[in-house]
UniProtKB/TrEMBL annotation:
This is Mitogen-activated protein kinase kinase kinase 2-like. GO terms for molecular function: ATP binding; protein kinase activity. InterPro entries: Kinase-like_dom_sf, Plant_MAPKKK, Prot_kinase_dom. Gene3D superfamilies: Transferase(Phosphotransferase) domain 1. The gene is LOC107827119. Signal peptide: none annotated. The lineage of its organism: Eukaryota, Viridiplantae, Streptophyta, Embryophyta, Tracheophyta. One of its GO terms (biological process) is signal transduction.
Length: 195
């Protein structure tokens, strides 16, 4: 919802990555005991839609390159759907526990990783459910003209399960296949999702 809000105000975040997603305890505890809320942080690279600025040098500091969209690498400008690409990379990382682009690629030369992002398809975890797979594929569509917008994605069943108060947040069935492990992780903090 944060991405939708930013885009509706005419801005693009331009640096969505795990370090810029903050987790806070929520004052209201959900029916299934979940009491966290997420906030998007670090708007230092944000820009207005249609504004063309050269952010290439600052984006390549740290691991941010792993979350940058192919159209930014090719054309040097961001579009709202560039934030959606970053979201897809983060979701894959949360589900699989590894970055979409391997650590070997990330530690290699920038040009090599850039080439991977532009030319190769990202690694999507195989053991996710059909609903999660569809959502991730819509986020990681290579052609930015065909990639879903935040407005489109907020209507997707994967997101609606989170927003619908009548459901028990999101079920393991919605996230994984029957053969999946029930532990999610990332290179930051592994955690048990379904105790």
């Amino acid at each position: 919802m944060a991405i939708l809000h930013i885009h509706s105000k005419g801005y693009i975040h331009c640096d969505i990555n795990p370090q810029n997603i903050l987790v806070f305890p929520n004052a209201v505890i959900h029916a299934n005991g979940v009491n966290n809320r997420l906030k998007l942080a670090d708007f230092g690279s944000a820009q207005r839609k249609g504004e063309k600025t050269c952010l290439k040098s600052c984006m390549y500091l740290g691991e941010s390159l792993c979350y940058v969209s192919p159209e930014f690498i090719e054309k040097g400008n961001f579009q709202p759907v560039s934030d959606i690409w970053s979201l897809g990379c983060i979701l894959c990382e949360m589900i699989s526990g590894t970055m979409v682009w391997s650590e070997a690629e990330a530690k290699g030369k920038e040009d090599g990783l850039e080439l991977h992002i532009v030319c190769k398809h990202p690694k999507i975890p195989k053991d996710v459910s059909a609903i999660a797979m569809d959502f991730i594929k819509k986020c990681l569509e290579k052609k930015h003209e065909r990639r879903c917008t935040a407005e489109d994605l907020i209507k997707h069943p994967f997101v609606q399960n989170f927003l619908d108060a009548s459901t028990d947040w999101i079920s393991k069935r919605d996230m994984f296949t029957a053969h999946s492990r029930d532990t999610l992780g990332s290179h930051f903090i592994p955690f048990k999702l379904f105790p």
